[in-house]
Amino acid sequence: MHNEVTTYDFKNIIANFKISSGNFDIKPFGSGHINDTFLLTTEPGYEDAYLLQKINHFVFKNIDGLMNNMLRVINHLKEKAEKAEKAEKAGRPAKETLTLVQCKNNKYYCQDHQGNYWRMTLFLKDTQSYDLVTTTKQAYQGGCAFGNFHCLLCDLDPALLVDTIPDFLNIEKRLDSLTIAIKKNSAGLVRSVRSELFFLLERANSMGEILQLGRAGILPLRITHNDTKFNNILLNQHDEVQCVIDLDTVMPGYIAYDFGDAVRSIINTAAEDEKDLDAIQLNMPLFEAFAKGYLGKTVSFLTEQELKSLVKGVLLLPYMQAVRFLTDYLEGDVYYKTHFPGHNLQRARAQIQLFKMLESKKGKLTDIIQQEWLQLK
Ligand code: ADP
Ligand code: GN1
Ligand code: MG
């Protein structure tokens, strides 16, 4: 069972890491759909606290490649932060990046006797992540966080990183998987989702644009995060950005994917899996604030073509999530953690609804980006 403290031999797992031994209190932590995360503490004030994560080996087949990516990116971010701090000479603390804890075998991950893979990071205390964004300050800070992330990594060669999940955001492959799931119909559920399938498949051809522009060399491949859900940013107590987290999917990609996935989780007034479709509305001021923050950090290097692609990403990402959730539903919930039967279908329906709303506001979204850009230029 996922996230059950009693399932794992924590004493032996923790003993692999170079930390002083202690009597840790261990609690499941966070609301991610893929990995299992545990908070380890010895003191009430979190002075000595770590996050221990079981990396989902079913999803990530190349753990060594993944951890090498993560280390390379973290080191690059830390070098940049140190340089910035020296240049400013103001003693302003560098923005935090994740810190991996080394294992006694000098790697940054270990395996337990059940074959599970584990890694540990320092717990950044006095931070929080949000599943739902409610203020323009949070949205603006989110824009700054991901914009800065792209900016700091834009001089690192994407070829140095491996694809931790091949074709992760390749919509053509995602649609192929949906088609296979429909044909197999292993859980016998296809008839019950005919209208959702019809809606998604009707739009399939128009969704490959970013991929085609990339293949044609019109959009550059950069190092992108590829999972820019808002809860993958840590904010401090004043809602200022502290750190971009969840670096498992950092690999070569297109900027529009990250912009689109962040907007997906910011602009929606309801949860990603909202049951009441009428509750799913667009909060345009949050979009404006996010775009302002993001473009402010990327104006120096973003190309005209990338700028134009941002709205395409805003439509593509909820669409792709709907395809992915529905595929998992048809396959019998083998990929995402689910909390009740039909959860993946509920998620897919919510993402389709969000996509419909975004489609109807495409012109407005484009205007906002254009206006923010002109103000910065
Ligand atoms: P998942 O892959 O399950 O989404 P994350 O790496 O995003 O895992 O971590 C899950 C949650 O744990 C995050 O949303 C955040 O709230 C919290 N978190 C992750 N890393 C840290 C950290 N270093 N310090 C404090 N909180 C963290
Ligand atoms: C998963 O791990 P988490 O919850 O941050 C998924 C993302 C999806 C997201 C949808 C490796 O992210 O691609 O966008 O769920 N991660 C992976 O909420 O598949
Ligand atoms: Mg996460």
TrEMBL record:
Checking InterPro entries in the record gives: Aminoglycoside_PTrfase, Kinase-like_dom_sf, Pseudomonas-type_ThrB
Q: Which residues form the signal peptide?
A: none
One Pfam family matching this protein: APH
Please list the residue ranges annotated as the Aminoglycoside phosphotransferase domain.
25-267
Q: Where are the transmembrane segments?
A: none
Q: Supply the name of the protein.
A: Phosphotransferase enzyme family protein
State the taxonomy lineage.
Bacteria, Pseudomonadati, Bacteroidota, Sphingobacteriia, Sphingobacteriales
